[in-house]
Design goal:
CATH architecture of the largest domain: Up-down Bundle
Low-confidence stretches: 9-13
Number of strands: 3
Structural class: mainly alpha
Largest sheet: 3 strands, antiparallel
Number of helices: 9
Mean pLDDT: 90
Radius of gyration: 18 Å
Order of helices and strands: HEHHEEHHHHHH
Number of domains: 2
């Protein structure tokens, strides 16, 4: 559990994020970054002590992570880190491949310049993570990129569904050794999607997303 700790306090402005949301984000990140192994039991008191919060926000964070399939119910009021089955992952891939090209096509019709710029900023961070050989930082950028597309056009139900699919994918691929060349190729595919979105080309955006998904599935 090295590295799993509360976010450091910032001096600029007080953080008004609800405690349960902060706990959810920190715990989700720790799990997807490999701080806990599949099957590890987590208790409310344990996590609350680690993060310096009461059991209530931990319980609420657990409920959201259970809903997303990242946690599973365990014994004695504990929860455990999920280990997705091959069958579940096949379903995830099927749903992702069906949905994301549609999201891209819809976004190309209505995404504004500021949101296209936001995607470009995400890719600047992604390229920086590749140079630093920080795979978790890169994969976080990868999530941000894909989730921003439905978010930008107000498709929040789609965004929530995609967050769950991507969380399960991250959970299943944490042991993969990512080569720089692979990450560079994926980044270039993202940039091709951005260009189609910037050109307001729904067919091109859908095709670029479909090609990207077909080439980047690691299992």
């Amino acid at each position: 559990m090295k590295g799993f700790r509360p976010e450091p306090a910032r001096s600029a402005a007080p953080d008004k994020t609800p405690t349960s949301k902060r706990v959810y984000e920190q715990l989700r990140r720790a799990i997807l970054h490999g701080e806990f192994q599949p099957g590890t039991s987590l208790g409310e008191t344990q996590i609350g002590t680690m993060l310096g919060v009461s059991r209530t926000p931990v319980r609420e964070a657990f409920a959201e992570l259970l809903n997303q399939g990242i946690l599973e119910e365990g014994a004695r009021r504990q929860v455990v880190i999920a280990n997705p089955t091959d069958g579940l992952l096949a379903e995830v891939v099927m749903m992702r491949d069906a949905l994301e090209p549609v999201f891209a096509s819809q976004a190309a019709l209505s995404m504004d310049v500021s949101d296209v710029d936001q995607l470009r900023l995400i890719m600047i961070r992604a390229r920086r993570a590749i140079r630093a050989r920080d795979v978790n930082a890169y994969l976080d950028c990868d999530d941000d990129f894909h989730l921003h597309i439905p978010h930008a056009v107000g498709h929040h139900l789609a965004e929530d569904a995609l967050r769950r699919l991507r969380g399960l994918t991250r959970l299943a691929t944490r042991e993969i050794s990512w080569e720089d060349e692979t990450l560079d190729r994926i980044a270039a595919e993202h940039e091709a999607i951005i260009e189609a979105l910037a050109d307001n080309d729904p067919q091109g955006a859908a095709a670029a997303m479909a090609a990207h998904l077909a080439s980047s599935t690691p299992y």
